[in-house]
Every structure is written in C-alpha cells, then in structure tokens.
Amino acid sequence: MAEALFLDIKEFTKRGWGKGDGFEVFGALPGDQIEASKIRRHKAKLQSIIKPAKNRIAPKCKHVGICGGCAFQQLDYKAQLDYKQNKLAELFNQPIQPIIPCDPPFEHRNKMEYTFSQDKAGQKFLGLHMPQAKGRVINLEECHLTSPWFSQTLNAVQTWWGNSDIKAFHPHSGTGTLRTLTLREGKRTGNKMVILTTSSKARDALTKQQIFEFKNLFEKNTSVFLVLHQAVKGHPTQFFEMHLSGPDHIIEELHIKDRILKCKISPLSFFQPNTFQAEKLYAEALTDVSGPVLDLYAGSATLGMLFAPKASQVTSVELSPYSILDAEDNLQLNGINNLKLIRGDVAELLPTLLKSELVIVDPPRPGLGPIACSHLTTLAPQKILYISCNPDTQADDLKRLKDYRITSMQPVDQFPHTPHCENIAHLERI
Ligand SMILES: C[S@@+](CC[C@H](N)C(=O)[O-])C[C@H]1O[C@@H](n2cnc3c(N)ncnc32)[C@H](O)[C@@H]1O
User: What does the alpha-carbon distance between residue 327 and residue 344 come to, in Å, rounded to a whole number?
Assistant: First the structure.
C-alpha cells in the first residue's frame, strides 16, 4: 500500500501542481492541508482535503483532479488571475498591465485534441491525458472548456468505437489504428470540423465501412477529415489528409476594433485556440506603424493582415505549409494586397530579410532562442512586438535582446484553469 502523507501545500510548481513538504501534488492548492499517498520520491496523489485553501471552490466538472485539461478549476478564477499576474511580475521585475480576463472562463476553446487509448484488458478510453499516470487517458464524459458540441461529438465517437473491434494505436509497439480525435469550431461562425487521426500502416487501416460509419456520425455541414500519421524512425513525421465530407475547411471571424478578419482554418494549420481572447490579444498588440513590418512565426498571417492597412508592406514568415496555404486564401478573403508570404524557418531566413520599422514575433513555446535573437539584433528594427504563450522563454529572449527596452507588457488569459498565460511585450530600440 502507498505511504500516507499529511501535507501543507505552500506554492505552485511551474506546471500548476501544488507543492509542500517536498512533494508535488496535482490538484492541490497553496493553503490546502491534505492527505496524499506517495507515488514517487517527490510526487504524491491527493486523497482528501483536511482543510481547504480559502480560495478553493467547487469545480464545474466531475473530472477535475484526474483530467489533465484543468489544473486550476478548483481555484477561484480571480485567484487564478492573481497567480498569473504575480508570476509575471516576479519573472520580469517591472510594471505589468492588469491581465485581461477570459469572460466567461468556460466554453472558450475552439479546438481540442483527444487521445484514443486501451489498457491491457482492452478497455477503451477516449479523452485527455491523466497527469498523474503517464500514458493513461481518461474517458471524458464532460468538459466545460468547450461548447457542448465537443462533448456530444466525443460521446458519439466513443459509442462508435465501443461498438467496433478497432484498436487504439499503441505508442510503444507501434500497432493499432486510432490515434487522436481533433475537434475545431468557429466560435463566431459556428463552422465545425472533425479530424480522425490514425496510423498510416496498411495492416492497421480502417475499412471502407468503418470510415463510412464514422463520417455518418456528423451533420452534413461538418467538415470531416481522416489524417494518416506516418512516423518512421530517422525521418520527419508526415501527415496525409483525406477529406471525407462537408466543406474542406472552416471559417472563423476575428472582430478586432472596427475590423472583421475572415480566417480560413484547415485541419493541420495553426489558429489561436481561444477566439474571443485572441481578439483582445490582437487589439492590444496593434500599434501605430507606417513603414515595413515583418510578421515572424506568422501562422496563417492573422497579425500580418491586422497590420497591413497601416504598414507600407508586410512580410509574413511561417514554417508550416498548411498555414501558408490558408494564409494565401486569407489574403484574398480580406482583400489584402501588400502582404508577402514566405515559407521557411525564421532563424534561417532572418539574415536575408530586409530592415523593417516593426518586427512581430509570436514563436511557439520554446521561444526565439539565441540564433533568432542574434539575427534580430543585427536586423535592428526600431520596434519589436513580442507575443508569447510561454513567458519563461520570453523572459530568456528579452535578456538576449539587450539593445531593446520594454515599453509595455500586457498579459491576456487565453487559457483559464491552466497555469499558462499569453503575454504581449512592446519593445523599443534604445
Ligand atoms: C504561436 S503560433 C503563432 C501564429 C500566429 N502569429 C497567430 O497569431 O495565429 C506559432 C507559429 O510559428 C510556426 N513556427 C514554429 N517554428 C517555426 C520556425 N522555426 N520558423 C517559422 N515558423 C515557425 C508554427 O507553425 C506556428 O504557426
């Protein structure tokens, strides 16, 4: 039997677990006194709350404490915002604008990826990962981060799978078929997309009948895709997309100040996961500019299109071919004719790019890194707009950009109930 522990939780770890008396506990909050069972040397599992923290609340979802989708739902939303604000203040040690809350902090996500999994006995699970049990997945019955359509669709796919003999993909052996189910929804438009990702091995392929039954689970106007995931050791992972039914993309709108941007979203291209908070983020990011603008890590060029009417010329750089294809259509949809798209790696391309008045960077979680920062310093734009979904790596990069001072910082809560936070930094060359 696991050793019983009585812990006083004092702080959060970086990933939003409670920490006290040398143990990290998922679901515990600073101020809680808990009983927990030891899992590993510094890790324990919450068993019961002896005395709750003063800002602990009853969560909306029955899966809280087990499901990895939310680390904080049991923490009052105001306290979540305070935690993020204080963390940024500590990290940057300079004035930071009050974080923009997500209102309401539920049903905000426009995309979710659920994993198919089976245990040794063959029991089927489709949902999100359990943070305390590596590799295990919870069979999700409800989720309040998304609109009810996500849970209804998930439940329909669980039933379809339950009635079949299809196997979940097993990452260690590389056998089995079903990998993930991704759902996307335009929050402004109501457009809906379903993407079933499977193994690409012929011996594990779905039959024509199974595919037919899967696509018939959804309404006619839903975009339905099958994506084959090919992972071969020593080669880059490849995805092969098959359009099964409905439109071949969805459209989302972004209402930013007095403009409405139309955005095409294809199965494999990037789009900010919280539409309404992205609108606030982009509105805060927009600054005065009249000269050339570089939009790096551009996705489908949303930021570039936002700046295009003010700028003399915009150049958007993005690695993903899927996002570049959507960006090409977005330029047409929004009547933009002063934006050039370049597909490629930012760190490689930066030395070839022309000097600009403003450089926008919106990198993925690892940040810019030393090479891109060094090239950016050489390019020496007057202003940099640095949008980040990982303030820790943003702080590292800002230390590298020594020729720049921070003129303002604005956090936006894109990810309620998680420790993650989006942060905008406006920089000016000293
Ligand atoms: C956080 S998203 C930002 C997208 C966009 N700015 C937006 O607001 O929708 C980061 C983007 O960077 C792209 N990316 C990742 N690594 C890259 C690289 N080395 N060079 C260029 N783009 C990259 C990803 O494909 C992704 O579209």
Answer: 14
Domain 4-92 has CATH 3.30.200.20: no
pLDDT, position 133: 83
Instruction: Determine phi and psi for 286, rounding to 5 degrees.
Output: -65, 125
User: Can you tell me the mean pLDDT for 136-149?
Assistant: 96
- The DSSP-derived string for 286-323 is -----S-EEEES-TTTHHHHHHTTTSS-EEEEES-HHH
Is the pLDDT at 132 greater than 90? The verdict is no
The answer to whether the 4-92 and 111-185+192-246 domains have the same CATH topology is yes
For the chain, what are the domain ranges? Answer: 4-92, 111-185+192-246, 251-429
**What distance in angstroms lies between residue 425's CA and the mean position of ligand 1's atoms?**
17
Question: Would you say the CB of residue 364 lies under 6 angstroms from ligand 1?
Answer: yes
Q: Active-site residues: which are they? A: 389
Residue 4 above 90 pLDDT?
no
pLDDT band with cut points at 50, 70 and 90 for residue 36: very high
Q: What is the CB-side half-sphere exposure of residue 392 using CA atoms within 13 A?
A: 6
**Tokens of residue 142, six digits:** 């409800």
Q: Which residues pair with 51 in a beta bridge?
A: 33
Give 37-60 pLDDT, tens digit per residue: 998 889 999 999 999 999 999 999
Is 344 a residue whose pLDDT tops 90?
yes
- Collapsing DSSP to helix, strand or coil, 226 comes out as strand
What are the backbone dihedrals phi and psi of residue 417, each rounded to the nearest 5 degrees, phi first?
70, 10
**Residue among 121, 120, 143, 9 at smallest CA distance from 67:** 143
* Ligand 1 close to Cβ of residue 128 (< 6 A): no
Is the pLDDT reported for residue 367 higher than 90? yes
**Looking at domain 111-185+192-246, which of 2.20.25.10, 2.40.50.1070, 2.60.120.590, 3.40.50.720 is its CATH number?**
2.40.50.1070
Residue 426 C-alpha to ligand 1 middle, in angstroms?
A: 19
Looking at the CA of residue 317, tell me the nearest atom of ligand 1: 21
What is the best residue among 266, 270, 281 to mutate for testing ligand 1's pocket, by most ligand atoms within 8 Å of CB?
270
The residue to mutate among 262, 265, 269, 297, having the most atoms of ligand 1 within 8 angstroms of its beta carbon, is 297
26 within 8 A of 132, measured Cβ to Cβ: yes
Check pocket membership of 285 for ligand 1, CB cut-off 6 A.
no
pLDDT value at residue 109: 98
DSSP-assigned letter for residue 128? -
Class of domain 251-429: alpha beta
Ligand 1 center to 353 CA (angstroms): 17
